[in-house]
Amino acid sequence: MIHPSPLTSISAVTGHPRWDSRGRPTVEVVVRTGDGSVGRALAPAGASTGSGEAVDLRDGGPAHGGYGVDRAVDRVNGPIAAALKGLDAADQAGADAALEAADGTAGFAHLGGNATVATSLAVAQAAAAASGLPLWRALNPAARRLPLPEVQIFGGGAHAHGRLDVQDLMVVPYGAGSFAEAYAWCNDVYRAAGELLDRRGARAGVADEGGWWPAFDSNEAALSALTEAIEAAGRAPGDEIGISLDIAATQLADGAGGYLLRREERRFDRDGWCELLLGWLDRYPVVSIEDPFAEDDPVGMAALTTAVAGRVQVIGDDFLVTDAARVHSAADTGACTAVLVKPNQAGTLTRARAALDAAHARGLTAIVSARSGETEDVAVAHLAVGWGSGGVKVGSVTRGERTAKWNELLRIEEELGVDARFAGRSGLGLDGGPA
């Protein structure tokens, strides 16, 4: 038996109720080690969720709309603290295995995925603090690459009460020479898009992730407007900046094998839906598409992936739910070319890292992602760099819970200085290898 170092031995684990960007309760966990180091983390929450995700533990009842987390906090202060006390914070896999053993379910239904992911992240932060390093460097001292950002410009779907059927219309600035330049370009596009909406009387507000909440008559009108906004920002669509779509098609499935565009009152069978999406990809500078078919439609996913091979990145989110076994299965069937990695989908960092490693092993791109319900926690910025992901997705350029993460990535790039390498187009995995 390997005994933990007295310096990084976990001396205390405490849970606390906090609040997220949607005004809902969430869980914060603080982990302390023997040398006095402290790690702190908050759990995010999604709006559009896959059925295979780790399960948040909520209180139900009338208080806070049923979203209370008192039970999850109690789990942290009770069985989780008991399971982790005395373990080595530097042994992330050991701590996460203890969480799995204490829970005993496949999706952390007993302890709550919100409790376990906050705990797992806090353990990592405590170990990094004890080493005197930022989390990204503690994860990989040789890390140099800044990921390609996916930045939301228009929000729809579950993020904007169905104002658009497509959930996210984003830009990917792969033509930039640095992360800082890439992010500045995205801000320019965001501003140009807002001005365009104002001229058309189509600006309805701001969606959950900070993107504009537009009032378009059709989904394709949003694609056209985004292309126009890229041009208005002085950038070349398809050359310097491309479009990334999150279809979140599980939300559009009609339960009978078809898909509904409710805003347009149009229904499609699988073949018709694939034809519609391929038409969008042909007419607009789309370089990435996420969950184009429902989580239970691998045939549709594989058909689209085959049709766009080599020219458009196809991402699995609800389809894969940050699960290594599903990643391997998708690679076997050619269902997608990229994996969205969301730690809270997996429930622990070890499980999330396993999904990312599976992607890299099978030649798929990995994109570390935040959620629509976020906090000021910036861990995903560190994970994206430390884990060497090709891309990073945290929302738009507005709202503090989003800019906190973008600004952290800018700090990391500055800290790396001349050693920094921006992923650029290679972050899409379209140039002959995984990103």
Could you please describe the fold and organization of this structure?
By secondary structure, the chain is of the alpha/beta class. It has two domains: 10-132, Enolase-like, domain 1 (2-Layer Sandwich); 145-428, Enolase-like C-terminal domain (TIM Barrel). It has 13 helices and 17 strands. Strands 5-6-9-12-13-14-15-16 form an eight-stranded mixed β-barrel, surrounded by seven helices. β13 (313-316), α9 and β14 (338-341) form a beta-alpha-beta unit. α1 crosses α2 (92-103), α1 crosses α3 (113-131) and α12 runs parallel beside α13. The protein starts with 9 loop residues before the first strand and ends in a 13-residue tail after the last strand. The model has no long low-confidence stretch (mean pLDDT 95).
- Mean pLDDT, nearest integer? 95
User: In the residues, how many domains can be counted?
Assistant: 2
Low-confidence stretches: none
Distance between the ends: 37 Å
Task: Report the top-level CATH class of the largest domain.
Answer: Alpha Beta
Structural class: alpha/beta
Helix content: 25-40%
| Individual helix count | 13
Spatial shape: globular
| Biggest sheet descriptor | 8 strands, mixed, barrel
The percent range for strand residues is: 15-25%
By CATH, the superfamily of the largest domain comes out as: Enolase-like C-terminal domain
Q: How many distinct beta strands?
A: 17
Catalytic activity: (2R)-2-phosphoglycerate = phosphoenolpyruvate + H2O
Biased composition (Polar residues): 1-12
Active site: 209, 342
Protein name: Enolase
